[in-house]
Specification:
heterodimer; A: 432 residues; Rossmann fold; Ubiquitin-like (UB roll); de novo design (two linked rop proteins); 3 domains; 5-stranded mixed β-sheet; 9 strands; globular; B: Ubiquitin-like (UB roll); 24% helix
Chain lengths: 432, 525
């Protein structure tokens, strides 16, 4: 395999990389020009055959998602750019917004054109205030350059983009929670079916795509689906922004081809673990993914299928590294606390179960653990989100995947580091 | 039509129905909390999870729609869907959900008003665990007033959101919402918009647990000590179907009863709390005779004899007043007895209120104006001028039972009368003008039929016993009937009524049952 050259982040080191003129000078908006002469269906086909899979976490095929938009409806259609990046350990969309906003915008316009939508939204995480300000400028530039508004680049295609700030809830990154929030309602995920492609924003057909997913689109149009498919594993190809954080010498965002070994990411790109400590465990795809032990981590490539085979997931590609000094019970409590805090409270298992986990883990950490607690914790995770086993019919007990998002990592901590949990109980270890 | 299999039962079902709907229709119990047939599907309690063959996860039956599948995908070559509601996986899942719901629940059934009609109790009993595995501190929150008559006990709330959806979808007033997030979520109002709309009381009925309580009923009684009588509300011309709960001759509470031709699932607070207006009234329980400016008790025999004598002497010079507050049978009897002039007192009209869901509170606050006109077609419009013209000297009045001041015209007329009979259960300013008062029954004591403003005839049933010497109003008129055609009982009367008024023919209490009969529908058929 030839050495991978960054595609999405090629120009991020340049000071003006976020401006329209810079983007245009480096070949920006040529894909859009190409697309405006094409039949929208051909655009969908191109993206479908590229096997581009969603970069937000679920990894669903973007082109297939687009093709779900009904053709015979008179309802308006909407595109929503999910920029509510809030998965712990994930900070790639923020980089793309800051450094290549026009790349993302071009992807949005192409996607909107493909699904025949005239109003699109950017739902940006509320905490991203600087990025919000920047995007306001980006949109203004685009309107002025006739890249947005009526008659885009002299065609008869019209598109308006609305920038909307979230109000600080993890669950609003879930596409239907996001849609509810965008409608001005409480961010409670919706029951599916119907899926957003059939009934989304204002009950109209809606596509929700992640920032990174949309940023890939112009490149697929420019260089073709075959080129895209040639990068990394065929079933889930393309460039990917990996966020490496935690106990590494050189944390940050690294653009690599899909399928890079996790070992290379941690030890080559992120510079390995400080102070010569040993690797203990890794979240491969954000805090919702089941953790991998050091041995498992050394034996996995960053690919959708390979991680599912290891009973984890690629998720948002947020790699969180833990070294041997990390207390796994404390880390587990930390994760459980986050999810208990962010649970929207709609479904019974998640609302009640997450806090139950926290209460038991807190008791454990305070030296009041009981022998039965470990089985209890495992059973509660089952009852909230089910086993990490897609072959069994016992997962998916809540409206949205939040149940799994808390159950799987917590369960993996206990299963893989049970002795540490046991020692908390036996030694009645009290942390200062 | 899709072929559905639920456990061992097979059904051909209409397209677009959900698994839960079909189960409910066929008495297959799938426990549920957030689902309510009048509200949008929430799917959040997760209690109704079932296993559906071919689907990777358990599905909430409330949001699983049944449709036809292509032949290749049919189960066993014929079923469009095969549902399991009792297998190990589903049973275990129900236990888990109930365990979650009870973690922070106070388990205070002994002092909870919902006890005995609580789905948390019932489902725990049927599907839950006998013991708790929760060793942690419970979430404890104080009760709060959501409106002047609604209290919430947050500790019992299971956040099914039926109440919030009710105020959004049925009353359209949107007072209730979920505040906070996750574990701290709770049902709330904003201070300047309390839950005080006229449908507010319904949230206490649709609450499946003991969280939402009516201050009118809180800690008053136990459900198993009360007698439940299905009847009809008489506080407006809609005629909402109700259940009247009594104990020892006292009404304790009223709740709406389902009738999709009339009120759906709900009732308004005017009707719900209306029974209190009869609690402290000056009740008449014996025939009364005016003497020395006051009234003295007389026997029924003397009263009836005197009235018959006076009517005979007066001949056609007696007028009668029909009443929309009396049953069809009573008004029919009045029309049958008085061939001469019949009229009514002026009506009071309020503003009609219609809610987004279609539920309405009629501006006509009498229960039976339609029936009165149907069965007393001879009612004249301007009775006062006719009385004057024809020099009428006697009048027989069915009292509305509402103490309002009559206008000057009527006051003057009543003064000029030689003989005034008032049939009333309560001492009103009108009954005080009578020479003889005959004690009828109050609304919750009467039996008979009433016709609502859309022509729906319903069975009014007595919830309270007859006090003292009071008699059913139709029976009083029957006593005055000097002919040989007296009716034996209410059914006999209804038969006679039907003969004279064909649209009411063949209506019996038995046929009316709990849902009533629509006259317009009958006419079409």
């Amino acid at each position: 395999m030839s050495k991978f050259e960054p595609i999405l982040t090629e120009y991020i080191k340049d000071e003006d990389c976020h401006t329209l003129s810079f983007y245009k000078n480096t070949g920006g908006y040529t894909a859009l020009k190409k697309v405006l002469d094409k039949n929208p269906d051909n655009v969908i086909e191109e993206v479908k055959s590229s096997n581009l899979r969603g970069r937000g976490g679920a990894g669903f095929s973007a082109g297939v998602k687009w093709s779900f938009i009904p053709k015979d409806t008179t309802k308006p259609k909407y595109l929503i750019n999910n920029a509510d990046e809030s998965e712990p350990g994930t900070f790639k969309d923020r980089l793309l917004i800051n450094k290549a906003p026009h790349q993302m915008l071009e992807g949005m316009i192409i996607a909107s054109y493909a699904i025949n939508c005239n109003t699109a939204f950017i739902y940006i995480r509320g905490e991203f205030y600087k990025e919000y300000q920047l995007l306001k400028e980006t949109l203004a530039e685009a309107y002025q350059a006739k890249l947005l508004g009526e008659g885009i680049l002299g065609s008869n295609y019209n598109l308006d983009i609305v920038l909307h700030r979230g109000a600080g809830a993890y669950i609003c990154g879930e596409e239907t929670g996001l849609i509810e929030s965008l409608e001005g309602k409480r961010g409670w995920p919706r029951l599916k079916p119907p899926f957003p492609a059939i009934e989304g924003y204002l009950r109209c057909p809606t596509i929700v795509n992640n920032v990174e997913t949309l940023s890939c689109i112009p490149h697929i149009i420019n260089r073709g689906a075959e080129w895209f498919k040639s990068i990394g594993p065929e079933k889930g190809p393309g460039p990917r922004l990996f966020c490496v954080s935690g106990r590494v010498n050189n944390p940050g965002v690294f653009e690599e081809a899909m399928g890079i070994p996790l070992e290379d990411l941690i030890f080559k790109r992120a510079g390995g673990i400080p102070d010569g400590k040993k690797l203990k465990a890794v979240f491969p795809g954000g805090s919702s993914s089941a953790i991998l032990t050091a041995d498992e981590a050394m034996d996995v490539i960053m690919d959708f299928e390979d991680l599912v085979a290891k009973k984890s997931m690629l998720g948002s590609a947020g790699v969180i590294v833990m070294d041997e000094t990390v207390d796994m019970v404390q880390a587990c409590l930390n994760i459980a606390r986050f999810y208990a805090h962010e649970s929207c409270g709609q479904c019974t298992p998640c609302r009640e179960g997450t806090v139950w986990l926290v209460k038991i883990l807190t008791r454990m950490v305070n030296g009041e653990g009981k022998d039965s607690d470990i089985d209890m914790l495992l059973e509660i995770t089952d009852n909230i989100g089910g086993l990490i086993d897609f072959s069994k019919e016992s997962f998916g007990k809540t409206i949205c995947p939040f149940g799994e998002a808390v159950a799987w990592p917590v369960r993996s901590f206990i299963e893989k580091f049970e002795s540490e949990f046991r020692s908390y109980i036996q030694e009645e270890k009290v942390l200062a | 039509m899709p072929l559905l299999k639920i456990d061992d039962n097979k059904f051909e079902v209409g397209k677009g129905k959900t698994v839960l709907e079909v189960a409910i229709e066929n008495d297959i119990e799938i426990p549920h909390y957030c689902y309510h047939p009048s509200l949008e599907i929430a799917g959040s309690c997760r209690m109704c999870l079932v296993q559906i063959e071919g689907m990777p996860k358990l599905q909430v039956s409330c949001n699983t729609f049944i449709g036809e599948v292509p032949p290749a995908r049919k189960v066993d070559g014929k079923y469009d869907m095969v549902v399991h509601t009792k297998n190990e996986l589903v049973t275990k899942e129900r236990k888990n959900i109930l365990e979650f719901l009870l973690l922070n629940h106070p388990l205070d059934c002994p002092v909870c008003d919902q006890a005995g009609e609580c789905y948390l109790q019932d489902y725990s009993f049927k599907f839950g665990n006998a013991h708790s595995r929760f060793d942690e501190d419970k979430r404890v929150r104080p009760n709060e007033n959501l409106g002047s008559q609604i209290v919430i006990n947050h500790n019992r709330c299971i956040l099914c959101t039926r109440c919030t959806r009710f105020t959004r979808e049925i009353s359209g007033t949107s007072e209730l919402f979920v505040e906070e997030r996750g574990y701290n979520s709770k049902i709330a109002i904003i201070e300047d918009n309390p839950l005080d709309n006229l449908l507010a009381g319904n949230v206490t009925d649709i609450c499946p647990v003991g969280a939402l309580l009516s201050t009118d009923y809180i800690h008053k009684n136990r459900i198993w000590n009360m007698k439940k009588q299905p009847s009809v509300c008489q506080d407006c011309s809609v005629g909402c179907n109700i259940d009247v709960f009594t104990q020892k001759d006292k009404i304790i509470r009223i709740t709406p009863r389902e009738n999709h031709q009339v009120n759906g699932y709900f009732m308004c607070d005017i009707g719900r709390y209306g029974f209190h207006q009869y609690e402290n009234i000056e009740r008449i329980t014996s025939p009364l005779h005016k003497s020395n400016g006051g009234f003295s008790e007389i026997s029924w025999d003397i009263a009836i004899k005197e009235i018959i004598d006076r009517l005979k002497t007066n001949g056609s010079k007696t007028a009668a007043i029909a009443s929309p507050f009396h049953t069809n049978e009573t008004n029919y009897m009045l029309g049958r007895l008085f061939h001469g002039l019949i009229g009514t007192f002026p009506f009071m009209e309020d503003k009609e209120i219609t809610y987004p869901s279609g539920f309405r509170i009629s501006g006509d606050r009498s229960p039976n104006k339609q029936g009165m006109y149907d069965l007393c077609p001879q009612i004249v419009k301007d009775l006062p001028s006719k009385i004057k013209k024809q020099n009428i000297r006697g009048i027989y009045i069915l009292d509305n039972g509402i103490d309002i001041e009559l206008d000057d015209i009527w006051k003057k007329i009543l003064k000029t009368m030689d003989f005034v009979v008032v049939q009333s259960y309560v001492m009103t300013s009108l009954s005080k003008t009578a020479d003889i008062i005959l004690p009828g029954l109050s609304p919750f004591e009467s039996e008979g039929t009433i016709t609502n403003d859309r022509g729906h005839v319903q069975w009014l049933r007595p919830s309270l016993p007859t006090p003292g010497d009071g008699r059913p109003d139709w029976e009083i008129l029957n006593l005055i009937d000097k002919t040989e055609n007296r009716y034996v009982d209410l059914n006999d009367l209804m038969k006679g009524l039907g003969k004279q008024f064909p649209s009411y023919s063949d209506i019996s209490l038995f046929k009316l049952g709990e849902q009533g009969i629509s006259l317009s529908k009958r006419a079409k058929e």
